Amino acid sequence: MKVQQFLEHHGIKENPFGQEDAQSDHVFKEFCLNGTHHPVWDKIFSNPTNPSTSVVFAEKGAGKTAIRMQMIEQLQKHNASHPENRVLVIEYDDFNPFLDCFRERYSGRNRRPERLLSHWRLWDHMDAILSLGVTQLIGQIIEPNESTDNNIKSVSKAQVANLTHLEKRDLLLLAAFYDNSLDMPAVQRWNRLRKKLKFSYWKTEWERALGFLVTIVTVGLVFYLGNWKDFSQWWIWLIMFAGWAPWLWRQASLFWKAWRVTREVRVFDHLPNALRKILARIERRELAGQPIPSRDRSDDRYELLTKFQAILKKLDFTNIVILVDRVDEPHLVNGSAERMRDLLWPMIDNKLLKHPGVAFKLLLPSDVVYYLHREEKEFYERSRLDKQNLVTSLDWTGESLYDVACDRVRACATEPGKNPSIKDLFDDSISEQELIGQFAQLRVPRHLFKFLYRLIVDHCNRYTVDNPSWKINRETLQKVLSLFQRDLEAFDRGMGTG
Question: Crossing angle of helices 96-104/122-142, nearest 10°?
Answer without folding.
Answer: 120
